[in-house]
Amino acid sequence: MRGKFRPRLQQLVATNSSEMVEECTRKAFQLLPDISGAVQELCKLKAVGPATASAILTAGAPETAAFMADEVLESIPGLSPVQYTLKHYLLFLDKIQNCAEKLNKADTEKTWTPHSVELCLWTWAVADRLRLPSLQSLSLEKSLEKAEAVHDGGADGPRKKQRTE
Q1: Which of 25, 90, 121, 150 could form an S-S bond across to 72 if both were Cys, CB 3.0 to 4.6 Å?
Q2: Are 148 and 156 a contacting pair, CB within 8 Å?
Q3: Mind listing the pLDDT tens digit for each residue in 2-59?
Q4: How far apart are CA 74 and CA 1, in angstroms?
Q5: pTM as predicted
């Protein structure tokens, strides 16, 4: 399960009428790619803030949105402490979208979306928190530096991984 469990939110969300949920959701997806407008529309629902709105948008438009998971926010420099505001979500999403664009420039398949980047960061953060043995030899900072060097072309341009036998 991703995100923090907040039982009171379920009770509040249940007070929204089906008609209101459908209307706000329809309008929100029609507003895309205007993320700000879409989040504001979803936030008209009781118990829906920017984080919950990001989950809804990501489920329907992973190529545009990313889930505002605490673990992901905390893994991106400059985004701590976590703030559940539209402004903070837009800053977060901008960083995630920029990362997806950089990865797609280096990846010939160009399959990176904001959601896939967010999932990778979430997986890394959770695995690191669990202290999985496979991560002990890795460093997030080193990985990010290497990714940035590949993106920027380094001194000699992008390099392919070489097999070691």
Answers
A1: 121
A2: no
A3: 666 677 888 888 899 999 999 999 999 999 999 999 999 999 999 999 999 999 999 9
A4: 18
A5: 0.76
50 Cβ partners below 8 Å, 6+ apart?
39, 43, 68, 84, 85, 86, 88, 89
Q: What is the pLDDT of residue 154?
A: 47
Distance, CA of 129 to CA of 95 (rounded, Å): 22
52 class by beta-carbon count within 10 Å (0-12 exposed, 13-18 middle, 19+ buried) = buried
Assign residue 131 a region: left if phi > 0, alpha if psi is -120 to 50, beta otherwise? left
The DSSP secondary-structure symbol of 14 reads T
Q: Are 70 and 4 in contact (CB under 8 A)?
A: yes
Q: How far apart are the first and last CA of the chain?
A: 39
CA dihedral 147→63→47→30, nearest 10 degrees, is 150
Residue range 92-122, pLDDT digits in tens: 999 999 999 999 999 889 999 999 999 999 9
Q: Which residue stretches of 32-113 are H helix?
A: 35-42, 50-60, 70-75, 86-106
